[in-house]
Amino acid sequence: MANWPTRSASAADLTALRSLLTDSCEPAIIPSLALLADAIDRDLVRVAESSGELVGCIATEIPSSEHVRISVIAVREQMRRQGIAKQLLTEAVMRTPRKSSEPPLISAMVRTEQLEVAHLLLACHFKGTRVMRVGGTRGALHIHYQYRSRAEYMDPDARHLVPVVAHTQLAESLSPADHAVTGLVMLGGEPAFEVARFEQDDPATLQSGEAAAGIAFSGSILAAITFLLGFAFSSTRFPDDVRLLLIGATFSTVLSLIIYASASGELARIRSNSFGKIMKWGNVLSEYGGVFPFLISLPVTYAQASSDRWTTMILAIVFSFAIAWYENSEFSIAHRFRRSRFELSLIVLTAASPAVGAALVTADVTSWPWSTVLIATLAARTWLYLFRRGAESDIAERRQWQLKE
């Protein structure tokens, strides 16, 4: 498929644009010169050229800051089926400005008989979500198409075909909020819409489950750290720096529990816009302030309690390899972001800490330098993911349904 040269339209293109629209579109959908000029001034019109001639254009309008409407797509008849319209539509979607973390709604209204436009929209990840009758009960039947920026999960066993001419059945099929037009096919030699059912996420339920899981996890880690801390205080040979490390882990884990409870409070007050940011704080403090200090302290604790150096070092090396594997797995927080050399060095120091700490305790060498480096490493990683990264996703994936993009 050729990559056509495209650009934003300028005021000098107004006459050529009007000619292109007149030759390519139905008179009813051609915007007036005033509306077209205003759209050009607002950088809402994009054109494609061939040999210095305008061969295609797309115009949008912004009825609100969170809604972009595709108002017209036009390609000269002799230049159609060469990917111009798809390229223009894709660029229009990609260039849509965002004023918040949530993407704006991108929509289009297309008559059911405009099959080429419907096929184009469906090929560019739009879904037909509503049937609208413009002009009263006898007016033309339109389908509201909406761009889906998120991956969705379609029930493969809940699909059916509706002939394009069956307006009443089409309206009935799209009346449930979880049904949408996902394809355009031929049925008995006549065009038909494929209507499918999608899973409807309930953000409050998903977020509530995530907060409850965070509270349960941090509570379990806190119980384990408290047990290990009790053992540390009951032993006269336990290193003081490791005791301080466990005290810090206890404090950090308690903070994560408070934060998870705050996330639940956000849901209760229906202020879930802050949920992702709050959960990020809880997740980071729980992992780098609680889980990692606890796991790294286990081989050190075994080294203090056992006189078998070989067993101690084997256990410590296994822990180091396990932490290194986790850091490179898709489950870790670090895996969710691009890693710099600085971050990689912090990951290496974290993974090596169990083996280094156990070796120092086994050799009866002071471990203060090791614990100082470890605390600084975990503090640096906590700062990095709390203040240098964006909020984590607050919607859990569900993989049991067929993915439909």
Question: What is the topology?
Answer:
Elements: E1 6-8, H1 14-24, H2 33-41, E2 45-50, E3 53-64, E4 67-75, H3 84-94, E5 105-111, H4 115-123, E6 126-134, E7 140-147, E8 152-163, H5 167-173, E9 179-187, E10 190-198, H6 203-234, H7 240-268, H8 275-305, H9 309-327, H10 341-362, H11 368-387, E11 402-404
Parallel strand pairs: 4-5
Antiparallel strand pairs: 1-2, 2-3, 3-4, 5-7, 6-7, 8-10, 8-11, 9-10
Helix pairs in contact: 6-7, 6-8, 7-8, 8-9, 8-10, 8-11, 9-10, 10-11
Q: Roughly what percent helix?
A: 40-55%
Poorly predicted segments: 391-405
Output the helix-strand order.
EHHEEEHEHEEEHEEHHHHHHE
Count of DSSP strands:
11
Mean pLDDT: 85
Task: Describe the protein.
There is one protein chain. The chain is α+β, with helices and mostly antiparallel strands and 405 residues long. The chain has a domain at 203-387. The chain is 49% helix and 21% strand. The protein has 11 helices and 11 strands. The protein has helices at residues 14-24, 33-41, 84-94, 115-123, 167-173, 203-234, 240-268, 275-305, 309-327, 341-362, 368-387; strands at 6-8, 45-50, 53-64, 67-75, 105-111, 126-134, 140-147, 152-163, 179-187, 190-198, 402-404. It has a 7-stranded mixed sheet with strand order 1-2-3-4-5-7-6. A 4-stranded antiparallel sheet has the order 9-10-8-11. Helix 6 (203-234) packs parallel to helix 8 (275-305) and helix 8 (275-305) runs antiparallel to helix 11 (368-387). The longest helix has 32 residues, at 203-234. Mean pLDDT is 85; it is low at 391-405.
